[in-house]
Structure formats: C-alpha cells, structure tokens
Design goal:
The protein is of the alpha/beta class and 253 residues long. The chain is built from 6 helices and 10 strands; from the N terminus they run βαβββαβαββαβαββα. Strands 3-2-1-4-5-6-7 form a 7-stranded mixed sheet, with helices on both faces. Strands 8-10-9 form a 3-stranded antiparallel sheet. Helix 1 packs parallel to helix 4, helix 2 packs antiparallel against helix 6 and helix 5 crosses helix 6. The radius of gyration is 17 Å and the shape is globular.
C-alpha cells in the first residue's frame, strides 16, 4: 500500500507557542527534533500496518525543516516550496491509497485550511485515515472525517499555550494510530472525503488589505471585514483558488 504523510509543526506535542516554529528562533532546532520524532512514529506505524511505499511531505513554513538523515530510511521525503503545498506529491495519478496528517492544528475560526487539504485529496481518490494534533483540531474534523483516526497529542489552552503529552507518549499514540489506519484502509473501512458541488472555501485573513489581495482571484468575493469566499465547481478548483488567495495575501504587509 502506498501511504502519503504530510507533516506540519504547530500541532506537534511540545510545541506550545508560535515563536519556536520560526527558523530564526532559538527554540526552532528543538521543535524540529519533535517534528522528526512524530514523523518517524507515523512512518514506523504505517510500515507495521503494511505500507510498502511512503512519501513524507515536509509541510511547515518554507517546507524544508526536517533533516533527511534523521528520518526513517523507508520513506522518501519531499521538501522545498511546492505549488501544491501541503498535498504536493499526492496528485491524481500518484497511486496513493491513504493519507496521514501529523502535526496539524486548529485555525482561528473555521478549519478551512485543513478541510481544503483533505477535500482535494478526496477528489483525487485518497482517503485520509489519520489526523494528529491538538484537541481542537480533532473536534473540527470529526464531522468531516468520522472514519479517520483522530490522535490528540496536546490540549489547546489559548492561542499561545498548550498542555502536551510527553513526546515519547505522543509518538506511541501516532505510531499505533498509523498502524490502525493502514490496516483499516486495507480492509476497506476508510473513504475519500467527497464534497458535493459547488465547493465553497471561506477564509478570514489577518487584516482587510490581505483579504483585498486574495479577492483578486477570479470567482472570489469579499465578505465581512477581512473574509474572502471562493466558490468552485469541484474540490480541485476550490483548492487552487484557496492556495492562490493565500499566496496573494502573503505578499502584502
């Protein structure tokens, strides 16, 4: 079975504040160590469950955080800035049967980013079998992905605080969850997320000018003080619009 793993950093156990997720922060190397640990746990669990090919997508920030030499040698690692962002390398013809998300986190407001990622994978026929991160994320994806393993490695306590499990325990949870996800995928217990058209993505940006830039995308419209609504005939087009809007918003202060 071909398994796709996407790893972010903010949802990793032990990462409780935004500062260490930035490369310039003194705590960044320690955060990378924690990220490597959970990535390897997901790889190990997938292998035990029966995976015979694994692609790991480094999905945080500039997307070149993980040290390849520290990762389990059974997985290939995809790093660097990528047009398809957190689902790069999956694609409609890549042959993946299962996707695993590690280190993900809840957003302010509605979880449009995470749902956008899972929806486009669903359009490509790939089932999401595990989502690991904080408790708020688990609550947000429960209705969208009721079949998926939801691994809680920390409890959110405000925007800049969290109560985390010990990294060793968090990795055990992810390892066993990944094994279950692969076995359940092989047994036909999982399914791709299918979103009926039209597919709508709504994003609240950090300020009004960022939303103004994002709304330049054809088909997008401004809503509220700093929101943008994008409606598309299918999940892939909606995801393209979501990515384009986020990138346009990112070029303005």
């Amino acid at each position: 079975m071909k398994v796709y793993i996407s790893v972010d950093m903010e949802g990793i156990a032990g990462v409780s504040h935004p500062n260490p997720t930035g490369r310039a922060d003194a705590g960044y190397p320690a955060a990378v160590d924690l990220m490597v640990g959970e990535a390897n746990a997901a790889i190990e669990g997938a292998l035990t469950g029966g995976a015979d090919e694994i692609l790991l997508n480094d999905s945080h920030g500039g997307m070149y955080n993980l040290r390849p030499a520290d990762l389990h040698p059974a997985a290939r690692v995809l790093q660097g800035q990528k047009a398809w962002s957190m689902v790069a390398g999956a694609g409609p013809d890549a042959g993946f049967e299962l996707a695993i998300f590690v280190g993900y986190h809840a957003r302010a407001g509605h979880p449009r980013g995470t749902i956008a990622h899972t929806a486009v994978l669903g359009a490509w026929g790939i089932a999401v079998g595990l989502v690991a991160g904080d408790d708020a994320l688990a609550d947000e994806v429960a209705d969208w992905l009721p079949w998926a393993e939801r691994i809680i490695v920390k409890t959110a306590s405000g925007g800049n605080a969290a109560a985390s499990f010990h990294p060793t325990f968090a990795r055990d949870l992810i390892r066993s969850g990944a094994e279950r996800a692969v076995r359940r995928a092989a047994a036909g217990e999982l399914q791709p997320l299918v979103v009926d058209p039209p597919v709508v993505v709504e994003v609240d940006y950090r300020n009004a000018i960022a939303a103004d830039y994002a709304a330049i995308i054809p088909g997008a419209e401004r809503v509220g003080d700093r929101g943008v609504r994008f409606e598309a005939p299918d999940a892939v087009t909606a995801y393209r619009g979501f990515l384009a809007g986020v990138r346009l918003a990112g070029i303005v202060d």
